[in-house]
Amino acid sequence: MVVVVGAVTLAVVGGGDGGQLSEAPPDRLDDPLPADRPLDREDVEALRLPMTLRGYRMADVDDVLGRLGAELAERDARIAELEEALAGARTPGFGDGEPAEGPGDYPPDHPADFEGSGS
Fold first, then answer.
1. Which of 47, 56, 99, 101 is deepest in the core (most CB within 10 A)?
2. Which domain of life is it from (predicted)?
3. Domain boundaries in the chain?
4. pLDDT in tens, 20-64
């Protein structure tokens, strides 16, 4: 009990006239990530997050990971879109060196199948 009273007394006396310390400006990224373009490998490799007493600032780490996650999701969606478009453009016989239709594969009303068509 005496220890608690002493600690409280010391805290009150040590506090002085009730003035508060001014808040220290928070550490921020020294070299912020570019906002005008997507991140590239060099941006991530050059990234240095500020350290605090407990490690990295959680807000900075959360911001960077959130941005990286969003950009990766956007790129994945674009890749999937392009792969789907490419798969739709591929048709049997297209671009594989084989003719799409062979002789005699024409529908009956095609001029090449008419007997005596003048050829």
1. 47
2. Bacteria
3. 36-88
4. 656 655 566 666 788 898 888 888 888 888 888 888 888 888 899
